[in-house]
Amino acid sequence: MRFNELPFVFTFTAMGSPCELQFYAPNDFIAEKIAQQIMADVYRLERKYSRYRPDSFLSKINQVAKSGGSISIDEETEGLLNYAQTCYELSDGLFDITSGILRQAWRFDTNVLPDDKQIQTLLKKVGLQYIRWGNSTLTFLQAGMEIDFGGIVKEYAADRAMTLCLNSDISHGIVNLGGDIKIIGAHPDGSAWRVGIQHPRNKIKVWKTLKLKSGALASSGDYERCMVINGVRYGHILNAKTGYPVKHLAAVSVVADLCVVAGSASTIAMLKEKDGERWLKSLDLQNYTFKNVLIRDVRLFRGVGA
Question: Which one of 27, 132, 204, 220 is most buried, by most CB atoms within 10 A?
Fold first, then answer.
């Protein structure tokens, strides 16, 4: 620790979310340089994997997917696919990066339920077993598919931000990418960062406050994009097997060593619905190591309904 470290805060918007960096650095010049490096990397990942940008690499992948062809991929993309495969297996096929195509039916801005026939038609194009990758090539065995790294990339970016800080000798700080949290290290005096978890039924209310000196926090829930019809809440987390929004748990927050693990674990718990809590407990949270990453804590919000 340097004795002249000062606190700095940088805010920006990326991946459709408000983001914030807080860390201690010796001076303005070093702080600005590191913040720009982090923001540049987050923007790079957004340009590369955004499903909303027609010029992104993900959009190029999905253009190839429409015809059922092959495309060359880099090591980073192959690594994300490998991680997605692990999540697919851990979730018994519920966490499936090809299920994003179901959004064609579920338009949460319309407040109208989709036609079941459309959902069943789209489900025929969902399935990680229909894609292959390796040797720098990604192949789609069925035409009309899509992939979406939305449940992985923002958390991956948060983990990379911490690494960039540590590589620049910044060891005290916190990264917040739209609620996906990665702790760089405790405050210089050793005190923890206070991190609030939003109440899933009241945006201005904090449900839980955690004190973290290390690790990461990520949450999944039915509240970010949803619609309520006849008193029934339909959230944006879709079951890759049924094509319909998950129910039972309103929100899950997980603390883990890596943000990408916290994010995927919370999403898988949501996807498992009534089995979600039991699945999390089966991991033996105090001792379970997932890819050498410890899952430390879980917070469940069991409230249901609108």
Answer: 220
Q: Give the separation between CA 12 and CA 59, rounded to whole angstroms.
A: 24
Considering only CA atoms, which of 17, 63, 2, 16 is closest in space to residue 178?
Answer: 17
Q: Are 216 and 258 a contacting pair, CB within 8 Å? A: yes
CATH label, 199-306, candidates 1.10.490.10, 3.40.50.150, 3.10.180.10, 3.10.520.10: 3.10.520.10
- Any idea where the domains of the chain sit in the sequence? 1-51+150-191, 53-140, 199-306
Q: Which fold has domain 1-51+150-191?
A: T-fold (3.10.520)
Give me the tens of pLDDT residue by residue for the chain, a chain 306 residues long: 455 799 999 999 999 999 999 999 999 999 999 999 999 999 999 999 999 999 999 999 999 999 999 999 999 999 999 999 999 999 999 999 999 999 999 998 888 999 999 999 999 999 999 999 999 999 999 999 999 998 899 999 999 999 999 999 999 999 999 999 999 999 999 999 999 988 877 778 888 899 999 999 999 887 777 888 888 888 889 999 999 999 888 889 999 999 999 999 999 999 999 999 889 888 754 333 343 455 667 766 655 433
